[in-house]
Specification:
This protein is mainly alpha-helical and 74 residues long. Helix content is 46%, strand content 5%. The chain has helices spanning 11-17, 23-30, 34-41, 49-59, and strands spanning 8-9, 67-68.
C-alpha cells in the first residue's frame, strides 16, 4: 500500500481553470508521464523541488499557490 504524502496541491483545480488542461498536457509541459501527474494530484507522490517549480511556472503562479505543507497537528 502506498502511503500518502502530507503535501497538498491544487493542480487539478488549476488544470481545469486553465482551459481544462489534461494531465497529459501538463505532463508534456514538465517532462514527466501522465501517471506521475496523476500520482502528484492524488497525494501519492511528492514532486522534486525542481518539478514543483516547473508546475507553478506552467500556471504562472507562486509555488505556495500550488502546494501546501500543513502545520504539524499537536
Amino acid at each position: 500500500m502506498v502511503k500518502s504524502t502530507r503535501v497538498r496541491n491544487s493542480i487539478r483545480a488549476l488544470r481545469f481553470s486553465n482551459g481544462e488542461m489534461t494531465q497529459a498536457d501538463l505532463a508534456d509541459r514538465i517532462g514527466v508521464t501522465r501517471q506521475t501527474v496523476n500520482a502528484i494530484e492524488q497525494g501519492k507522490y511528492s514532486p522534486s523541488l525542481e518539478m514543483a517549480f516547473q508546475i507553478a511556472r506552467v500556471f504562472g503562479i507562486a509555488l505556495d499557490d500550488v502546494f501546501e505543507y500543513p502545520e504539524e497537528e499537536a
